[in-house]
Amino acid sequence: MSPQIIESHNIEKNLKVRCEVRCRIPTKDKGEFYVHLYTNNLNNKKHLAIVAGPYIYSKSLNEVRENDTDEKRMIRGATIKPNITLPLKSLDKVNGISNIQKINETVFSNNNINKITDLEHKIPLVRIHSECFTSETIFSCRCDCAEQLDRSMKQIQNYGNGVVVYLRQEGRNIGLLNKMMAYNLQDHGYDTVEANVKLNQPVDGRNYTIAARILEDLQIDTIRLLTNNPDKIEQLSSLGINIVERIPMIPSIWENKHINCNHQTQYLSSDSNSNCSNDLDYDMNNILNESEVESEHSKLTDLEKYLQTKVESMNHDIPLPDYLIHTHSHNN
Ligand SMILES: Nc1nc2c(ncn2[C@@H]2O[C@H](COP(=O)(O)OP(=O)(O)OP(=O)(O)O)[C@@H](O)[C@H]2O)c(=O)[nH]1
């Protein structure tokens, strides 16, 4: 067994989480959430659960602690009535939802989220999100992480019942220092996968056991999951989370882009000065030779190159828009 597999087995066996505090966080444009802060017995990282709706409660937060008082419970955000349990668990068994074996792949627009029945509504909508300081705090346009966080919080709030589990696994768990070195390599032609490899780091060093334990603590065993990442689905399923639906996350710069081989296709953004924008104009009728492909690829924004690599090299399960199919990344 590789050291990585041994480590992940150890994590799975020994990991325990505890919710230390829960507080209300109103947001500018996404409504109100209850943020739960978790400690664990393996390291000092403080993972978070950002909860929407009135149905989700933490077991560990609400259980009675040594020398507990009403005031202590109020300060940590626990219910004053101890040991509250809600009937969310095993809804599938009670109502026969376990028949849903296949993971449906539905583009969940805000409209059809509203149309689901009350019963289905109880299955939480979940995003397992990994920390990205560069995009979420200092507005980097190299990746779409901040957009994914923003959109998933909005979708979950609109749905009325769900959680973003926010994992402190910066840079797919290689840490900020390595990620910043990877960015320098990416500025010299490496893609996001090759850069990690060059630094002797795993391409994706994340482990989702902590997320599964947090969901367990929140008394959630059946979910709808917002993701494009098949590895996340596989790991969570093997950790006992029943995923009844996979909801893709289409990056906003790829929305409304489609195949139209008879016309010159234009993908002009309204903000052509922004590095995040997609201001390229391709003629799909042209068959490009190798050096033209190389040259077209070099015109892509950092974000486009990143998204393209996620689909082409990391198996992310979303269709590549036409104009990118015609500009394969250099390592393909
Ligand atoms: N090493 C490295 N990490 C990155 C880079 N860009 C973003 N990240 C990290 O990638 C993580 C997010 O992973 P993504 O691959 O974007 O998305 P995902 O969570 O795997 O998949 P989805 O569920 O579909 O969003 C965060 O921890 C980011 O800090 C990069 O260029 N290099």
TrEMBL record:
The protein's matches in PANTHER family, at most eight in alphabetical order, are given as: GTP CYCLOHYDROLASE II-RELATED, GTP CYCLOHYDROLASE-2
- Class in the EC hierarchy, top level: hydrolase
- The protein depicted here goes by the name GTP cyclohydrolase II
Query: What Pfam families is this protein classified in?
Result: GTP_cyclohydro2 (PF00925)
The EC number(s) this enzyme carries: 3.5.4.25
What are its GO biological-process terms?
Answer: riboflavin biosynthetic process
Enumerate the spans annotated as GTP cyclohydrolase II domain. 123-248
Q: Which UniProt keyword terms apply here?
A: GTP-binding, Hydrolase, Nucleotide-binding, Riboflavin biosynthesis
Q: Which reaction is recorded as catalysed by this protein?
A: GTP + 4 H2O = 2,5-diamino-6-hydroxy-4-(5-phosphoribosylamino)-pyrimidine + formate + 2 phosphate + 3 H(+)
- Which InterPro entries does this chain map to? GTP_cyclohydro_II, RibA, RibA-like_sf
Stated family: Belongs to the GTP cyclohydrolase II family.
Give the pathway listed in the UniProt entry for this protein. Answer: Cofactor biosynthesis; riboflavin biosynthesis
GO MF = GTP binding; GTP cyclohydrolase II activity
